[in-house]
Amino acid sequence: MSGGGQALSDLLLYPCLQLVSYTELSEHTFRAPQWIYFQRKEAISNTQKWVNASSSPKISIDFELTQEAYKSKDNLELLRSLVVFKLCSYDLLVDKNKELMDISKFLLGKKAFEQFMKMTFYGQFVAGEDHKSIKSLIQKNRAFGVGSVLDYSVEEDLTQEDAVTKEMDSCVSATEKEGMSKEKQYKAHQQFGDRRGGVTGARTYFYSDEAKCDQHMETFLKCIKASGGSSVDGFSAIKMTALGRPQFLLQFSEVLVKWKRFFSFLAAQQGRDGMEALEQRLELQPLQVHRTHRVGETIDRLDWNSLIDDRIKISDLLVVPNLETGQLEPLLNKFTEEEEKQMKRMLQRLDVLANHAEEHSVRLMVDAEQTYFQPAISTLTVEMQRIYNRGRPVIFNTYQCYLKEAYDIVTMDVELSRREGWFFGAKLVRGAYMYQERSRAEEIGYEDPINPDYETTNMMYHKCLDYILDEIVLNRNANVMVASHNEDTVKHTLRRMNELGLTPTENKVYFGQLLGMCDQISFPLGQAGFPVYKYVPYGPVNEVIPYLSRRAQENRGFMKGSQRERELLWKELKRRLASGQVFYRPQPEPGL
Ligand SMILES: Cc1cc2nc3c(=O)[nH]c(=O)nc-3n(C[C@H](O)[C@H](O)[C@H](O)COP(=O)(O)OP(=O)(O)OC[C@H]3O[C@@H](n4cnc5c(N)ncnc54)[C@H](O)[C@@H]3O)c2cc1C
User: Fold this and answer.
1) CA distances from 91 to 88, 97, 125, 545, 574 (A)
2) Which stretches of 318-453 are DSSP H helices?
3) Which of 429, 481, 491 should be mutated for ligand 1, with most atoms under 8 A from CB?
4) How confident is the model at residue 407 (pLDDT cuts 50, 70, 90)?
5) pLDDT band with cut points at 50, 70 and 90 for residue 66
6) In angstroms, what is the span from residue 146 Cα to ligand 1's centroid?
7) End-to-end CA distance of the chain
8) Which Pfam families does the annotation name (predicted)?
């Protein structure tokens, strides 16, 4: 273990710890940074007082001003948006969208169908077929102050049966015996094998083989390159499940969660349960955990280099503490040689992508996925941040605020970045897998990881966001993307930024929305000088149908955001027609 005085909290952030000897810890108490809370509070309140007293201008944006919001759209584009959102308001059309698209393709023929889609749904939500054809849209949005996060959106159109087969094959080790004591949550279940069920907000990848994962990596590499080429401060998004065998993510997640539980168990024994993660203090003396075996003398804890090193076996890293004996035990007996290689390759692909992003000055966002993968995804992303975010924020993690434990995760990661001096980068979302998570938890029989209601998720979002904004004030190394279509959340961010004296030009707080949605939020923000980005999907018409299908679901008529968007579009179209702007041509403002 490097540094005998390592705090227990640090160890628990890196819990593949057969190599960590607690007996080497010289500190008897993990000093919880409670003083940090007081210092934070005081520093923030002093900043607020100073900002209130200063005469620096406060930014306010009127999201009702449709003239500003739709400045970048001609009348045909407004009309197309209105038609598309109107079509999404018919439940029957949305529910049967796949069948209807199949029938249309059959009746119209491929070419006419593609043309029809380009004039409607595809034109609304997708930028073009490849990274060349999307350039003009990217440039146009940029001219109106809105950047792009490129997102290649081709998806395999698998049957449910094929999806389940692929999932079960790729999530269970060939050496895994029936009846091994595995956590129910971190085990593949046949009935939830099709991970697309109940998910409208995100794309799903299934593992086929290594060649397919290499193909995904190549696509991400192209996106990174194109993002670097299209602007000086580009973003690109990736999903870890596209890059390898998901079995590793499941099993690593289980290890992480078992370590966390071990920490809670110890905290409870010492009467310190029920506190926020950062506030828990533990006496270290009674926490002697015995090492059972070690992999190599040179490695003293999980780190990125040891993970991607071919000579180190992943199965040797996946050990968990036995609560009764204090012994570290392997999670599984062994993986096969091939599985070991597959898991290594996933991590190596990630490393290639991070390197490429750094070289092209592109920021890489790692999307958040289901809770049975997410502890691993999030921890691996932090590991990359520790390497790549030394000079500037290259890697961004995603935090899902519908999770009960979101605040604890955010504060722990912020604290770690502060202690180690790297740039914290976060994308904050509410979360895209709610229905699937809830029904899986209920059916399989574990605690629902999602907040009990929408209000609690909103409060969680704002609490996490406030913490990061405060961190930006205290330590300019933090960065956050507010990835939401929720107008109240955007207004909350602007209000808080005004109170804290954070300006848009500092480039610390970004906003993110999907292409074709919420232009009334994105464009006024961009024109006011805020860094705002659209997730820009692209891909051939016939291969982005699943993506379009999900957009139709997300814009159903009963959705509050969708209704409001229709009202504003209609208002602007009427205003233009009444003022004689029948052939309105978008003109970007100079200087944007
Ligand atoms: C740029 C961008 C990037 C994204 N990246 C990711 C990603 O990496 N991973 C990911 O998971 N999602 C991602 N999303 C999707 C996101 O998580 C949301 O699903 C989506 O944006 C809707 O949330 P909202 O804040 O925009 O709107 P809102 O309409 O205000 O919020 C809807 C969300 O609130 C939550 N919610 C709704 N009802 C309840 C309830 N009863 N109890 C508890 N919570 C509830 C759910 O998360 C639901 O999706 C991304 C979205 C954007 C715009």
Assistant:
1) 7, 10, 19, 18, 27
2) 337-359, 374-388, 406-420, 434-444
3) 429
4) very high
5) very high
6) 21
7) 51
8) Pro_dh
Q: Which residue type is seen at 419?
A: R
Output the CA–CA distances (angstroms, integers) from residue 438 to 134, 372, 377, 404, 474, in the order listed: 37, 12, 20, 12, 37
Q: Is a pLDDT exceeding 80 seen at residue 268?
A: no
Measured CA to CA, the distance from residue 440 to residue 282 in angstroms comes to 34
pLDDT at 269: 73
Query: What proportions of the chain, in percent to the nearest 5, are helix, strand and coil?
Result: 50, 10, 40
The ligand 1 atom at the shortest distance from the C-alpha of residue 453 is: 42
- Which amino acid makes up residue 380? L
Name residue 397's beta-bridge partners.
426
Token representation of residue 509: 């707080």
Taking the centre of ligand 1 as the mean of its atom positions, its distance from the CA of residue 431, in whole angstroms, is: 4
Predicted local confidence at residue 84, as pLDDT: 92
Centre of ligand 1 from the C-alpha of residue 583, in Å: 37
Structure tokens at 13: 């952030």
β 235-238/363-366 pair status: parallel
110 vs 93, 103, 117, CA distance in Å?
A: 20, 11, 10
For 515, which DSSP code? T
* Rounded distance from Cα 458 to ligand 1 centre (Å): 10
Ligand 1 contacts (CB < 6 A) are 201-202, 367-368, 398, 400, 402, 429-434, 450-451, 453-454, 457, 483-486, 512-514, 535, 561
417, 477 contact by CB (below 8 A): yes
Using an 8 Å Cβ cutoff, are 376 and 253 in contact?
yes
State residue 237's pLDDT score.
92
For every residue of 213-230, DSSP letters joined together read HHHHHHHHHHHHHHHHHH
Angle between helices 374-388 and 247-269 (to 10 degrees): 90
- Residue linked to tokens 């990736």: 238
Q: What is the pLDDT of residue 234?
A: 86
**Using CA positions, which residue lies closest to atom 25 of ligand 1?**
484
Least confident of 192-196, 341-345, 500-504, 512-516: 192-196
Nearest to 547 by CA among 246, 154, 230, 242: 154
Give the three-class secondary structure for 354.
helix
Mean pLDDT, range 21-34, rounded to an integer: 36
pLDDT digits (tens, 9 = 90+) for 138-176: 999 999 999 999 887 776 666 777 777 777 777 776 666
**Percent of the chain's residues with pLDDT above 70:** 80
